[in-house]
Write a structure and sequence with these properties.
The protein is α/β, with parallel strands linked by helices. The chain has helices at about 40-50, 55-60, 65-75, 85-90, 125-144; strands spanning about 1-5, 10-15, 25, 35, 65, 80-85, 100-105, 110-115.
Amino acid sequence: MFQINVLCFLISHKSDKLCQKDHVGSQELDKSKLLLLEDGHCLKEHALAICQFQKTDIGQTFSGTSMYTLIQMVSAKMGITFVPEMAIEQRLHNNTELNIAQLNEPGPHRRIAFITRLNYAGVKNIELLIKLFKQNLAEKEDLN
């Protein structure tokens, strides 16, 4: 088993008070503005765990069926949302209306694991994929 740690980022509209920050702590978030994926989605559970929020802390909020929907809702000034680091470039490319702030909470924000059988014939391919992930994530860290 191999693991890679990935950060989570807060996405807000440029008009939001959080847009002036590059790093944001969960205590700074207006929970009433938080847009999350529907119940049962792993990213929702993950975001709540990172911030140490309970579902009851969030109250009545909008939820989306996809990250794309949530990002469009943020673009429309309907709230704020979370996006994992690996999806930022793809999901937010050239969107000048949005601000990206690293969620400043301790520990890994997302853990990706590759698990194979001991006799799996494609282990070399998995190792190459892991190497690619690590290189890409290291390059992004160097840019920050």
